[in-house]
Amino acid sequence: MKKISAALFAIWVLAFACREKYVPTLNEPTTGYLVVEGFINSGSGPTVINLTRSTKISGAASIVKETKALVRVENKANTTSFPLTETSSGIYTNPQLSLNSSDQYRIYIKTTDGKEYVSDYSAVRRTPDIDSLSWRMENGGIQTYANTHDNQNKTKYYLFKYEETWEFTSRYPTQLKIYNDRQGVPNHVGYRDSSNPIYDPKLFRCWKTNIPTTIMTYTTEKLSQDAVSLYPLAYIEPASWKLGILYSIILKQYALSQEYFRFLDQMRKNTEQLGSIFDAQPSENIGNLRCLSNANERVIGFVEVSEEKQQRIFISNAQVPGWGYNNQCEDQVAIPNQPDSIKIANGLPTTVAFGGRSGLDVVYFAPALCVDCTLRGVNTKPSFWP
Q1: What does 169-211 look like in DSSP terms, one character per residue?
Q2: Least buried of 157, 159, 228, 374, by fewest C-beta within 10 Å?
Q3: How far is CA 326 from CA 53, 73, 164, 355, in A?
């Protein structure tokens, strides 16, 4: 028995000792493949197309934006087109399309090197309404869910996206800042505004937004009803800062064709191994786009016509008694308000002044993340926030 065990162990060692990293040989262009991400929105809201270039499997992952391209939506008869404007690097947008439900449409792209790209024509697809965006306590945290259905039993293929935003505050409010001498050396702590020495709300209350890149698809093709119940979205860990005050999540739902669903499903399998849609894709998962200028050039992406449906909910800290959020900030440290002491305190990269005594003879320092909320979020209140 010992001999058999020893032999098996030797085989195991040899098998794993001989394992090497496999990098497939692909004829990738030096500029990478054009990656087209987005959809033609048949409903209310903007159409947004993101153009980038893929990176080599052997290279470092980076996102290369495809800028200054000509992008438009065309109908099949080539009698109507809607231009998209580059609103930021590589992002092309039209605020609102007016599509004919009986027509078909595609995306047209012309890059600065003169190459032309198009997607296949797509019928106008409608998305069923969202039944609810729900949540419940699970394992001490909060799990959110998408729920929808199609009474006509025509949708069958769904894509879900979400964005989450939460409000938070610093542990310590501040009305002070560090002043430097003429040589730029920290010299003393004083009021931010001597004429109005109040705590600075711009450093105290902030908001944070998270937009996951996970591909979330679902099909009801094997179910008796075209209904999606309790599809899991975001999970909020127990005692997370996301629910320290107020949390919001918006669900975006899309109806897909079977072809687009399969493309995304394969893309999800690839990106789970490699990182994101912008990285090199080893499979033949190319999509429905092609290069008119060079039939042999690959294009990565899938663009079709769909409708975006949205629903937003808020969850407050008061709705989850005993949430137990703790910002884990260190206690403040009293520092004499004199140059030598301020230089020492300011020499620590994580400390800033936040409060003081009468006459500011002594001030308090604390970790910057505990004083300045803009280090973790933005202090501009979102337009949808109550």
Answers
A1: E-SS---EEEEE-TTS-EEEEEES-TTS----GGGTEEEEEE-
A2: 374
A3: 42, 50, 20, 21
The whole-number pLDDT of residue 358 equals 58
pLDDT attached to residue 357 = 57
Under a CB-based contact definition with an 8 Å cutoff, are residues 81 and 115 in contact?
no
What pTM was computed for the model?
A: 0.83
* Distance in Å from the first CA to the final CA of the chain: 71
Residue type, 110: K
Tokens representing 147 are 């729920």
**Cα–Cα distance for residue pair 363/19, rounded to 1 Å:** 60
Q: How many residues does the chain have?
A: 386
Decide: residue 219, CB within 10 A, 0-12 exposed, 13-18 middle, 19+ buried. middle
Choice among 78-82, 111-115, 167-171, 282-286 with the minimum mean pLDDT: 282-286
Give dist(CA 221, CA 204) in Å, integer: 50
Tokens describing residue 212: 């996951």
> Residue 278 above 60 pLDDT?
no
- From 49, 107, 46, select the one nearest 75 (Cα to Cα): 107
Q: Which of 265, 210, 281 is nearest to 242 (CA)?
A: 210
Residue-wise pLDDT for 190-214, tens only, equals 888 877 878 888 999 999 999 999 9
